[in-house]
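Closing statement on the galactinol sub-project.
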Amino acid sequence: MRKHIYALGGAGLLLSVSMSAMPAQEMTGELPDPPEFSAQSEPNFVSISDILEYKALPEYNEPDWVTSKYVDAGALPPVAERLPKEPLVYKAANMPDGIGVYGDTMRHVIGGRPEGWNYIGGQSQGWGGIDIGLSECLTRTGPLFMVKADELEPMPNLAKSWEWSEDGKELTMHLIEGAKWSDGDPFDSEDVMFYWEDNVQDPNVSAVPSGTGTPERFGTGTKLEAIDAYTIKWTFEESFPTQYLYAMAYDSFCPGPSHILKPEHPKYSDNSYEQYKNAFPPEYLNIPVMGAWVPVEYRPDDIIVMRRNPYYWKVDEQGNQLPYLNEMHYRLSTWADRDVQAVAGSGDFSNLEQAESYVEALRRSADDSAPARLQFGARTIGYALRMNMSGNGWGEPDAREQAVRELNRNLDFRKAVTMAVDRQRLGESLVRGPFTAIYPGGLYAGTTYYDKDSTVYYPYNMDAANELLDGLGLMDTDGNGVRNFPADTAGGADVEITLLANTDYATDTNLAEGVIAMMEPLGLRVIANFQTGTARDDMAQSGQFDWTVERQGSEMVAVVQNTTMLAPTGPRTHPFHKAGSDGTLDLLPFEQELTDIVNAFISTSDNAERAELMKQYQQIFTENVYSVGLTQYPGALIINKRFANIPAGAPIFMFNWAEDNIIRERVYVPEDQQGDYELHPETLPGAPGSDGPA
Ligand code: BQZ
């Protein structure tokens, strides 16, 4: 039975000092092992050189209709002239089903909506693989799930090779030579420098839509310069910070078409930053891309159709220009509908990531006649309750919000919250069975750098939780069942906390509602602030929240991807602690320790040292309840059975999402299984005769 210590007068809230009567060790407990759940298939581990190389081939091919309707008609140069000197060549031996054939479509269903095509200006295209397909980046990491652990390094992509200086402080990168944007304009270092100088370095340009394209992602003080059209040089403060090669992949270093974007940028026009960001609305078709498919049709709330890029700079070993698939659909629906349509066969692809859909998806896919195969991977989907840890103004808090942040910054408060969460019940509320696991926060169990002995777990314990809040002087002074701030804080009002969550996913809101309910016996009134995807993302990135419940990024799964986001290593890098209005980060001592560990991890290439640093990271993170882990479970790739070249063991989420991991440009449909799904057959983006409006 919980006792209330009624108000002893206006005792100030000693927010920075833990006052718990219960010794810390009594609150921790043995972390239960996750229920046994083995991934259904394992990758065939290879070297990067087994996957691809860059070389000139004796001849090149393209779909016959491109030759007859476009090249022979003089609308396009011959394919050999549309390709770089040494295209990126995918090796047949690494293609699960070998060299493919042209034709057919991949019908995606997505829950996001396109804001426009200015990805590097901060716009989202609706996620679900659209931006991944459009935005080719200097390096690539999605397919790294199939690369041998001892050879792990980002794959070359637009940067085809690189070498470090003797002292490891300079990295010279060689760009692919002669590649072109989908409108024929040359790709070169001008595109790279426009992205770096006028987007990443310009604080007025919102970082790429996921908020990750900020200077600190590449190290404090890092410089980048163009040596010539196809050579760039990075200069770092650290020695051999190979980590930053991961940041040069999606989503943080994917240059845009400077020949189209630069004239709209405020530095080169009379445009405002808002006008620059919105200069290419979804209706603007045939935006030049380096990706395999180009947007040719947009019907609001209905569909985005993309057609093959005639200048795509990748081929197979027989010289066939990729992609094999002529068309991409992105049906504008909901994320839950993506699962339903993929299982039913009216869609082709889904990342089964909402645990509520698992049982039905498994049931529907169990039948031999089911149109799609469902393949579970490791537990790489995880949710946490994250608290706004800024005490100096990030997101411009009012008095109540500031008082909540001061609570967030108090360890006893975070311990009380974490011990009020019944994780077993939370996981079972999503799906019963061997899927969900108790997740205490920090790095995910089962991934490379995880160490259970370094993981501190505070089991469900309502009595201890209430005792901690009593000890913080948060009393229910008006007897309405909700604790109050002390009289000298937020006017002694009820402790009300807003909880931001993404309504695009049932899982996000279900977990948020579970947390809200579990805070009631703790005397905290948590109020739902549920927003749709883009609005939620914008509010989270700009600090307009007290707490969020959200699915975490690849930094918790892969560690080497988005590493700088593991701690507040820069003013704008961390998901729930960015700099205040004065540009400074008011880190708590343990946050500074985490930041120092992450920076040390980035600065060393010694694997044993990196493993040790991540154990320290996990210990400090979980001991201090940096975020309140909730649940963790495996995702499953649902893909229509007609597609070939789907790599074994492709996770839906690890270094990136499956839309990147499966290497869609190599995926094909055998001729005898091709569907009649193309909406603009035998057309090219923007070229004369194409359906897509110019
Ligand atoms: C996968 C992914 C491909 C973003 C998005 C979405 C945004 C976040 C996150 C996922 C969607 C799908 O995730 O849920 O399965 O297809 O697109 O980009 O959640 O709201 O901001 O980080 O990737």
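Residues 607-623 form the longest helix (17 residues). With this model delivered, the sub-project is considered complete and its resources will be redirected to Aim 3.
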